[in-house]
Amino acid sequence: MGSNSAEYDGTREHSTREHSTREHSTRDRTGHGTKGVGRRDLIKRSAALGLISVPTMSFLSACASGGGKDQEKAEEGKKTAKNPLGVNNTAKLEFVLFDGGFGMEYAEDAVKVYQKAFPGAKVEFSATQKIQSTLQPRFNQGTPPDLIDNSGAEQMDMGTLVGKKQLTDLTPLLDAPSYDDPGTKVRDTLRPGIVEMGQFDGEQVWILYYAYTVYGVWYSQKALDSLDEQYPETWDQMLAVCAKAKKKGMAGWTYAGKYPYYLPFSLYPMIGKVGGREVLDAIDNLEPNAWKHPAVKACFEAYYELQQKGYVLKGTPGLDHIQSQTAWAKGDALFIPNGSWVENESANVMPDDFDLAVSAPTGLDSSDKLPFGTIWASGGEPFVVPAKAANAAGGMEQLRIMLSEASSKNFTGKVKSLTAYNGGTDGIELTPGLTSGVAALDVAGENVVNPRLQDWYVQLQKEKIGVSGIGEMMAGRATPAETIKKIQAFADETAKDSSIKHYKHQ
């Protein structure tokens, strides 16, 4: 994601760049067109997760303070079929983009479309990696830009922006006619979970995630073929494939040992598959004993078995995300839990004939609540329109343009990532990872899960559940039972902390 890069690596240096590198690389995979990626009405239930970087205290306090005189708002323009949001056709538009792995060209191209539609309007477009330090003072002064790609290492904390009423509700954009079809609302052109991801409390939508990431288990189809195996759908099959790989000198798994919060990219959707969506919702809601659900126990024990049987690449707990991906790309391990940015991030070490593929997590057996194919996919590259923007309608119109088929196709073709627009891949030569991601989404249909823990409670998810919990278990230093007890205590502690804003699935 060109932007959210920071996001998942908050802890990880690559957090910042991660999103950036990754989202941009986010190649979802659904090889064939993008046709069957679940219709909007099926999606209502798949609240998405989202990547949000760790907030800094300077921003938290700065956002809370007022000061400065708010800028004058542009007069509303006349609403017409071609201008459904009532943009003032002479009002200036200021658009600030995160300068990350996705580059600037896709946004610059979309700006040209805006300028053509409103030739009397001046558009100020700029890009920076220092979103927070550049824009925080302007939020305080009441003079923010009209549209911001809030991503990267210096991403402004979303929970704080929402909590302090610093953002514009994007519902008018979502209910506006889509750019390509006046008979279809923008919200009905979006992928699973995008609308829900932008919500915090209630129906208002504060964020529009533009890129779309598929999380799952990534592997080389060539390597799997060399074992004369298919991707395992049950855990017994997974263990058998790993045993066969081990005999040939290849580990079954590796992962970012220094950043073990990558493991949930496959572990959380597995928990959802085994126990149902409600188990993940209870975890997100910080409900008492949510982590003690039998599905959590079963999935932790399954992953622990990989470690106990020697199916994890030796030394993995000491590897960072790049080192683990490099070892995997070189064939030292068969499977790695990751997001679709891995294709771009590993491009320089991945052999040309690697034949990259992604699959939804392996389940336990036929007793699982959800079918094989249940996957975690969600938006990245969060765009926001500030509440005190002078030209909020213009900011939303620029997003409406970006959510057109042409702009979406332009983004995917240039940065090898899917967008929030549910389509836009026809006629584009997709990379192997992107093709595989699209196919995985087709298989998943409505069975897309989107845990919110990682954007509602960053420190809990990364440092506590990830590093202190799952990381210790996978290094063999704690049993599943000990780990679950520890993680439940962390969750309870967060739930009782009145200094933390708490969110719940609606």
CA-based shape: globular
What's the Cα radius of gyration? Answer: 22 Å
Topology, number of strands: 10
Tally of alpha and pi helices: 22
Q: Give the DSSP E fraction (strand runs of 2 or more residues).
A: 5-15%
Percent helix, as a range, is 40-55%
* Assembly context of the chains: single chain
Major sheet details: 10 strands, mixed
Mean pLDDT rating = 86
Describe the structure in your own words.
The chain has 506 residues and is an alpha/beta fold. It contains 22 helices and ten strands. 41% of the residues lie in helices and 11% in strands. Strands 1, 2, 3, 4, 5, 6, 7, 8, 9 and 10 form a ten-stranded mixed sheet that branches. Helix 5 (105-117) packs antiparallel against helix 18 (405-415) and helix 12 (264-275) crosses helix 14. The two termini are 27 Å apart. Residues 1-66 have low confidence and may be disordered. Belongs to the bacterial solute-binding protein 1 family.
Q: How would you describe this structure in keywords?
A:
single chain; 506 residues; alpha/beta; 10-stranded mixed beta sheet; 22 helices; 11% strand
What are the SSEs and their pairings?
Elements: H1 5-8, H2 13-25, H3 40-43, H4 57-64, E1 93-98, H5 105-117, E2 123-128, H6 131-141, E3 147-149, H7 158-163, H8 171-175, H9 194-197, E4 208-220, H10 221-226, H11 235-247, E5 251-253, H12 264-275, H13 277-284, H14 294-308, H15 321-329, E6 333-339, H16 342-345, E7 356-359, E8 375-384, H17 392-402, H18 405-415, E9 418-419, H19 432-444, E10 448-449, H20 453-456, H21 458-474, H22 480-496
Parallel strand pairs: 1-2, 1-3, 5-6, 8-10
Antiparallel strand pairs: 3-8, 4-6, 4-7, 4-8, 4-9
Helix pairs in contact: 4-6, 5-17, 5-18, 12-13, 12-14, 21-22
